[in-house]
Structure prediction request, 459 residues.
Amino acid sequence: MIDEPGPGMSGSSREEQITDTFVTLADTLVDDYDVIDLLDGLVERCVLLFGATAAGILLVDQRGNLSVTATSSEETRLLEVFQIQGDEGPCLDCIRSSRPVTCGDLAAESARWPAFVPAALATGFRAVDAVPLRLRNVTIGGLNLFHGETRSLPPADRRLAQALADVATIGILQQRSIHRSSILAEQLQAALNSRIVIEQAKGVLAERHGVGFEQAFAALRRYARDTNTKLSETARLVVLREIDADEISRRLPRSDSGPDGASEH
Amino acid sequence: MVTQTGNRGAVCATDEVAAMIEELQFSLGEGPCVDAVNAGRPVLIPDLATPHAVDVSRWPAFMSAAADVGIRAVFAFPLAVGAVRVGALDLYRNQAGELSLEQLAGALLAADAAAIALLSMDVNADTFSGDAAEGADYHLEVHRATGMVQEQLGVSTADALLRLRAKAFADDRPISEVAADVIARRLRFDVEES
Prediction:
């Protein structure tokens, strides 16, 4: 199943972590940045800040579908749980209503979400929070927090989650006028296609080095950070075989590390 | 469209003006459509005369040709599946204005369908039929599996995707099931099957 995040998070206080999160997000927004990088960092942070078991972001893709755009873990089963939400589930409800959806005990909601609840429970999730990515009257997606135990986020945490979702929304829209639907379309489609390139690259690396997707992604991300390259551009270069295989393989986390082996090396 | 060897050319156009402006972009290597293909993202300019966020000075020849034939708005959608780029769907209008949400959705779906159709044509046009709009519905597993197959066979991403599709077609199974087998390492493409 999915590991719980450890209780002590490198010793820093929660206040420091929150500050750090906003500083990191703000830094990201200053430069020429990659929306996928931003969202990827955000879900990672959400797991730490809220003690969630997993986090993910779904975006409305303007064809009328929901697309999984960022997840805190590479587990295929987790991905499936997210993808079911294209048809039903808290994130879809949250996006449709433009309001947060909280479910402190998923087992009690199987009538409401007959496909989502069994899949979520089977993956080890007991509770979920979803907050919308919205700016004024437009909702472009939702942020999902999954919990391995029955719980509800305290009100202060829900406000914090909404604030993080707002930063992500601004990042996606690059603060330009939301009334220009073409800007939104350009940004969303670029993010969605970047996600696909990243998945293709994970497949290449997993196969080439005989590792799991989690490790493949960790190495991809590390290479991108080390070389100050956008994550999506790094992925594209991997897929086009323009990055030396050794450059990636020496950044692979050791195979005995857990699914979150992306931390320190 | 753009072939795997990097050749470019207009495949079809609805009228002579569109055909001319398409050829112009490809022969000059500049313009919104070229940028859409290269970046894998739409380039949407509802008003060429007052482009808010787009630096149109990058395309001097395109801008002057567009002005000559009275084009006021350009909407270029890449035909792309991740790193696979097969071309762009380009819409031109002689009036300024945003696409409506319905028009936008329609264009995106048409671009998905065209991407898959063009991809298939590269290899074996009569092998595939029907559901060309499937591309947008691919789950992320399909793209992971594409990367794995690409590495197994030492082929391009486009060819790997085609092999996955052909396998699904031959076995009469959804491509997502074939992809799940590849990911679970129950199926490899580099071993001969009996």
Remarks:
- Chain A is about 50% helix and 15% strand.
